[in-house]
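Renewal narrative, Specific Aim 1. Our central claim is that a sequence can be written position by position from structural information alone. The example that follows is taken directly from our test logs and has not been curated for this report. It begins with the structure tokens describing the chain, in the order in which they were read.
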């Protein structure tokens, strides 16, 4: 790794936690990481977050990606149904308003 703080040897870095990466040009990636005790703290927070999600979704941590994918796929039709119902209500309101206006004339 290069860019940022330099060390004489990698043992000085101690722990390392990758926090992100991004493209900085054609064929070039920027790797973001934290080191030392902050890496341990970061990983502990990540572990806690995964534990909370697993408890809420009643799944083991390794099952979370599939569980979330299943929930999202089950939500899609419900969202579509809700949008259709909303559109139907709006059209009904419009039809009633038009009928009321026609009755006034």
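The sequence written for that structure reads:
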């Amino acid at each position: 790794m290069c860019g940022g703080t330099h060390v004489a040897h990698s043992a000085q870095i101690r722990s390392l936690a990758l926090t992100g990466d991004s493209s900085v040009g054609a064929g070039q990636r920027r790797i973001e990481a934290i080191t030392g005790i902050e890496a341990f703290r970061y990983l502990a927070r990540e572990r806690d977050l995964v534990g909370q999600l697993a408890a809420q979704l009643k799944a083991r941590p390794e099952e979370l990606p599939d569980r979330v994918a299943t929930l999202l796929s089950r939500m899609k039709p419900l969202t579509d149904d809700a949008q259709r119902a909303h559109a139907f209500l709006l059209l009904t309101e419009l039809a009633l308003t038009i009928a009321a206006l026609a009755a006034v004339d």
